[in-house]
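Thread: sanity check for a docking pose with coenzyme A

Original post by kr_44:
Hi all, I'm comparing my docking run against an independent structure prediction. Below are the sequence and the ligand SMILES. Could someone generate the full complex and paste the structure tokens? I mainly care about where the ligand ends up relative to the chain.
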Amino acid sequence: MIVKKDTLTSEVFLELFSSVGWEPPCIDQVRTAFEHTLATFTAYDDGLPVGMVRLLGDGGMSFYIKDFAVIPGHQNKGVGTLLMNAVESFILNSIQPGWAVSLELISTKEAVTFYRGKGFEERPCKWDGPGMFKMIRR
Ligand SMILES: CC(C)(COP(=O)(O)OP(=O)(O)OC[C@H]1O[C@@H](n2cnc3c(N)ncnc32)[C@H](O)[C@@H]1OP(=O)(O)O)[C@@H](O)C(=O)NCCC(=O)NCCS
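Reply from moderator J.T.:
Ran it for you. Here is the predicted complex with coenzyme A included:
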């Protein structure tokens, strides 16, 4: 298993995205999103893409995880962990000593335990409200 940075194509993105049962956006939307994506990480097993994650962010204060997906046949085998490690190493290497930055996401119901295990805290909590979300359609 190997994780590569910025090798994800729009076509492979759509394959992996659909493999976990999500309704995919159109390819033009994906291509536009990729132009503004900080980094993508793709896991390959014997050369075949089996998992991905996309990282958004401003490079200085805030980073955001999107489209974290491992194809069903490869789940629970450590692929997601490799991808998360790659994301965190990338962030650590791109920030200055002494900086603290946030890494945020909205979890699916199924992935809550996974993210908890990676050190993510849930919202709402005693001192903070929930994350909030809105779709804008044209
Ligand atoms: C959530 C997701 C990305 C995690 O990826 P994954 O490859 O399954 O993750 P891992 O295998 O590294 O870890 C999953 C579990 O398997 C366990 N595991 C890790 N390596 C393992 C191994 N070699 N053998 C058996 N189990 C293992 C981990 O302990 C972990 O347990 P936990 O969930 O209780 O923490 C993946 O399951 C997925 O794509 N789910 C569907 C889409 C989804 O919900 N994505 C989240 C979007 S927010």
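The beta strands are 2-5, 39-45, 48-57, 62-70, 102-104. Hope that helps with the comparison, let us know if your pose agrees.
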